[in-house]
Specification:
By secondary structure, this protein is mostly beta strands. The chain has two domains: about 170 residues, Glucose Permease (Domain IIA); about 80 residues, Immunoglobulin-like (Sandwich). The protein is built from one helix and 20 strands. This is M23 family metallopeptidase.
């Protein structure tokens, strides 16, 4: 199994998240007061912030703020006003907007990769470093994924403290197109995804704070289990970056490329 095969589907996680197991940016919407102003609002009912890039195509309209613009939408019970579009009543006007979102706060600064993670399992005492995949000419992103060969139904442990953002556990078997996973948000703005966990094995809830070493799920349940895939991401200029990970030598684990 090539490492790139699993990483290719990490970017598409949103299309596989069941509603009952996710907490994410709820909506960006507009309100037209029919007096020359269209208000754009965002709502975030998650437990962590999101960064959106607001883009718009306007005809006979002007935006209060220069577009495109990047905004952080923090968790809140009330909607957040993003910007306004103004128009001249009586003239034909139109607008279309888009708002690609990333988990976390984009800062434009390079991420800190000095943090030392624990291995997400204590089951095997052999560690083989996973080399990074060279940058793609098309996406210009370097992939860093770590595959852990574990026996079936072994405890999967949090590799770092954080908040559970979402998960899926209803896939009967893990494949490249549909798989169970947990995502944990870290205090530095990065977040880890644990892929190929066993169905109905999640032992945490959305919004729960987990400690390093805490059991969060179990490994794939089949007789020949799919490897546990561990990936750490960080908000980037246009898309999330995949970060290299340093593991503590004190708890060796079974990783392979």
């Amino acid at each position: 199994m090539r490492a790139t095969g699993w990483i290719a589907v990490v970017a598409a996680l949103s299309s596989h998240r069941p509603a009952q197991a996710q907490a994410q940016l709820a909506n960006v919407y507009h309100v037209d007061n029919h007096q020359g102003v269209v208000f754009l609002y965002a709502e975030n009912h998650a437990f962590v912030p999101y960064t959106i890039t607001l883009k718009a195509r306007l005809v006979n309209m002007q935006s209060t703020d220069a577009l495109p613009m990047r905004l952080v939408v923090f968790p809140a019970k009330q909607p957040q006003l993003l910007t306004t579009f103004t128009y001249t009543p009586g003239l034909a006007y139109s607008y279309h907007y888009d708002y690609p979102a990333q988990l976390g706060i984009y800062t434009s600064r390079p991420p800190d990769t000095t943090y030392v993670y624990r291995f997400p399992s204590d089951s095997v005492q052999v560690f083989r470093p996973t080399p990074s995949v060279p940058k793609s000419k098309r996406t210009n992103i370097t992939h860093h994924d770590y595959l852990f060969d574990l026996p079936a139904r072994m405890p999967v442990l949090a590799a770092r403290n954080g908040i559970v953002v979402n998960y899926r556990e209803d896939c009967r078997k893990n494949t490249r197109s549909a798989f169970n996973f947990i995502t944990v948000f870290h205090e530095d703005g990065s977040y880890a995804s644990y892929l190929n966990i066993a169905p109905s094995s999640v032992g945490v809830s959305i919004g729960q704070y987990v400690n390093k070493g805490q059991r969060i799920a179990t490994s794939d349940a089949r007789a020949k289990p799919a490897p546990l895939v561990f990936v750490v991401n960080y908000p980037g200029e246009a898309a999330a970056l995949e970060l290299p990970v340093r593991f503590a030598r004190g708890n060796q684990g079974p990783a392979r490329p």
